[in-house]
Amino acid sequence: MSERKSLALTCLLLMLTPLAAIASPPIIEGERFHPEPGQHAMVVTSHTLASRVGRDILRDGGNAVDAAVAIGFALAVVQPRSGNIGGGGFMVISDEKSDQVTSIDYRETAPAGAFETMFQDDEGNVIEEASRFSANASGVPGTVSGMAMALERYGSMSLDRVMAPAIRLAHDGFAIPQRFADGLNGSRERLEKQEGTRRLFYKADGSNWRAGEVFRQPELAATLTRIAQNGPREFYEGETADHLIETLQAHGGIMTRADLKDYRAIERAPVHGTYRDYDIYAMAPPSSGGVHIVQILNMLENDDLTRMGHGSAASMHLMSEAMRRAYADRSKYLGDPAFFDVPVEALTSKDYARELRAQISLEKATPSEAIGPGNITPYESNETTHYSVADDSGLAVANTYTLNFSYGSGIAVDKAGFLLNNEMDDFSAKPGVPNAFGLIGGEANAVEPGKRMLSSMTPTIVKRDGRNFLITGSPGGSRIITTTLGVISNVIDHGMNIQSAVSAPRFHDQWLPDEIRIEDGFSPDTVRLLESMGHNVTQQSAMGASQSILINDDGFQGGADPRRETSSALGL
Ligand code: GLY
């Protein structure tokens, strides 16, 4: 059965089946359905082995942050297309006991030698290859610093304890899932161009790895062991830093040892908003995710989405109109707050949302050109990975991190066994010209030395009456924000259980191109109604992979996204 057909069937089954009635999981690789009542902790990730690592840490007395950090390192081993130590991301942490929600920004930064036109030729044309697949495509990685900061400030275990499972997986190896083999085989043309990368990810005779074979990564095991023993500065100032800079400079990169040494993760207040009776906490700039989740929810909250119904033309029209207005603002107002004064308060204010909502007709689509200019053809990538963890002490973690594209720039650090990001493509290589996700940026997101590139990653924690309620987020490039929005609305507006909320068909509107992009699973009647309102509707491949947790009176429920066959929810 094709991936799309199997997804549609899985979604249909999940929509029709009450969670408590699901007895035997129909999918073999992931561990997706854990509806037993009364569970008091939950881990949901895109990989069964990473979920087991997190669950075991919780079982051994670790808290949700310990588990989240252990999962971050484990995914770097078992899912190298997006799990990483050579990239960056964002972690939102909620502590019910102290009623505090905080976040760790470990986004990559541009090296000191970066400059605004570095990805343009002499005529000012953007050179895509340079921002995506060259040594200069990489920002200074933040993952090791971010994970270490989260652990030191909010964890309870030592770094070597939480890294031990990842080191074991790298050293002893693991049985390759089909998705892992398919990913490497599908990216072969790009990855084998780099000698170091070919050596790491293909067999000595050059052939592909097959599902079920054991995959070992001794160089990565040695790198992780050095970090576990010497601490995070090993990555930024030790032997690992030497290997990283030697590799990049051998490929003509501008990153220096000083860039690595100067890198620091930043703890930030998350963006806060309210939606109906709920508090929304999501990532602040340099992610656009938190601002736009709150902005869109503000535009929606005075309409009765429950009555309109999930997947109806009425609700999809209204949500799309709200989405496209937010994405138009994204292109102008969002960037690294250390370099640009992002008007977070104004963009997330209820007054501004009322103004925007007043422009929306419930009968007719607003052409995107009436909202803002532009003409683009987006390249799509579904990579990045999100995971959620919640424990019984009231700690919850939403973490999204990435190399940007699948396998990042495709350049692996020689002698250290890990891939580097191509996050520099998330800058506006030239203001007004779209990046790989079709997103247009302005001066706010122009390349500058030491700056963090704008992101869409949206790790989010929703609270109700001071209690953690929903922990969510997703990969999916520009579609991350709308995927996360959909899960929130499915739970709050449509009363879905978390598995249904995560599995339900998705749609996305990012202002430009002027279209509503839909997955399989919407009724043709709905599509016709949307078209009659003036929308362009295109059906494309699955979007995102939202690994989410819902906590209510029935206990902790995990929703593992069926769009990834290795997705896994494990409760305790
Ligand atoms: N690289 C995808 C994002 O940060 O939004």
Automatic annotation (TrEMBL):
Residues 553-572 are annotated as: Disordered. It holds the Pfam family G_glu_transpept. Pathway: Sulfur metabolism; glutathione metabolism. L-glutamate binds at R107, T402, L403, N404, D426, S455, S456, G477. Belongs to the gamma-glutamyltransferase family. Residues 1-23 form the signal peptide. One of its GO terms (biological process) is glutathione biosynthetic process. Gene3D superfamilies: 1.10.246.130, 3.60.20.40. NCBIfam families: g_glut_trans. This is Glutathione hydrolase proenzyme. This enzyme consists of two polypeptide chains, which are synthesized in precursor form from a single polypeptide. It comes from Kushneria indalinina DSM 14324. It catalyses: an S-substituted glutathione + H2O = an S-substituted L-cysteinylglycine + L-glutamate; an N-terminal (5-L-glutamyl)-[peptide] + an alpha-amino acid = 5-L-glutamyl amino acid + an N-terminal L-alpha-aminoacyl-[peptide]; glutathione + H2O = L-cysteinylglycine + L-glutamate. Cleaved by autocatalysis into a large and a small subunit. Keywords: Acyltransferase, Glutathione biosynthesis, Hydrolase, Signal, Transferase, Zymogen. InterPro entries: GGT_bact, GGT_lsub, GGT_peptidase, GGT_ssub_C, Ntn_hydrolases_N. The active site is at T384 (nucleophile). Its EC number is 2.3.2.2, 3.4.19.13.
